[in-house]
Amino acid sequence: MNMQQMPKGRDVEEDDDSFIFNDGFTAPLYGIKVHAIQLKEIVEKNTSTTERVFKDRQYQIDAAIVRTIKTRKMLSYTLLITELFEQLKFPIKPADLMRRIESLIDKNNPQIYNYLA
Question: Is there a contact between 82 and 68 (Cβ–Cβ < 8 Å)?
Fold first, then answer.
């Protein structure tokens, strides 16, 4: 075996586990695979990437909301969401759109939106 884990087991505890490389090991095909660590890092990286992408897209979402309401002057929530889905070229959840709308607009009537210059 070219790599030994102390203590032995399938799971990796970041602070407690150590790995020892056996430099006396020889084989025609060799490699080191540490799947548990790679999988954990991939999940963490995907989560942080998704959050950063959403933050970057917030400006596009905000611009699309303002552009749509400014053009229409008055429209319903359903029509606004429909037009936003047509304008935005990336996948987005309706709940995320609603959060962005609420952050930009003071609402008197929650069913109708008016653009005030």
Answer: no
Distance from C-alpha of 76 to C-alpha of 83, rounded to nearest angstrom? 11
Task: Decide: pTM greater than 0.85.
Answer: no
Q: Where are the domains of the chain?
A: 3-114
63: which DSSP letter?
Answer: H
- Average pLDDT, consecutive stretches of 10 residues, N- to C-terminus, the chain (117 residues): 58 68 72 65 79 86 89 86 89 86 71 68
Q: Find out whether 100 and 113 touch, Cβ atoms under 8 Å.
A: no
CATH 3.40.630.30 assigned to 3-114: no
**What is the separation of C-alpha 97 from the centre of its chain, rounded to a whole number of angstroms?**
15
